[in-house]
Amino acid sequence: MTIDLLLREHRNIDLLLVALQRELEIFEKGIRPDYEVIRAIISYFEVYPEVYHHPQEDLIFSKLKSRDPDAAAMVGDLALEHQEVIDRLHHFARAIDAILADRDLLRQDVGNIIRDFIIRERHHMMWEERDFFPAALKALSAQDWTEISSALTNDGDPLFSDTAAATSDALRGHILQLEQEAETARSSVAFSSAEPGNP
Questions:
Q1: Smallest Cα–Cα separation from 118: which of 41, 186, 32, 176?
Q2: Which of 16, 22, 67, 100 keeps 20 to 30 A from 174, CA to CA?
Q3: Can you list the domains of the chain with their CATH numbers?
Q4: Rounded to whole angstroms, how far apart are CA atoms 83 and 103?
Q5: Which H or E run contains 6?
Q6: What integer is the mean pLDDT of 126-132?
């Protein structure tokens, strides 16, 4: 079912937010984080939520507005929420690009931008799961869900296709593998520097 897939994608997005949180903690200790991991996470958010995830939700919200305008009004402005997600992502990406280009930025400001992205992304998903998804499940008919699924798989751009899911899973797996490698490398450096005779 469509909502189940969206919920699964939320869990997958949260795995990347956990990895980003670890890199933020490293950054805030004054240690260089793994910018390959951070850039890969940004790239993931630029593609999958924007191109695949949000359009699915927008279509459901459109149906909700036609079925139950009052419920849609209670949920709020999903289009604005999604635009704010995109704006936060671009702000985050610009801050990372500035660091990598050696432009002067206060470390605390960059940390705050990354933390804001993580917190507000989680808040956005929680809001959808608490308010939007239940309202849609209550108001939409079986026929509505069938139409939504059909719309999402038309025109040779199958948002729920096995190819899209496999690509998304592969990219996410690659990012999490990079994060694991970064953690292992950091642990071995910390271990070797803690051995007797090492400064």
A1: 41
A2: 100
A3: 2-194 (1.20.120)
A4: 27
A5: helix 2-28
A6: 96
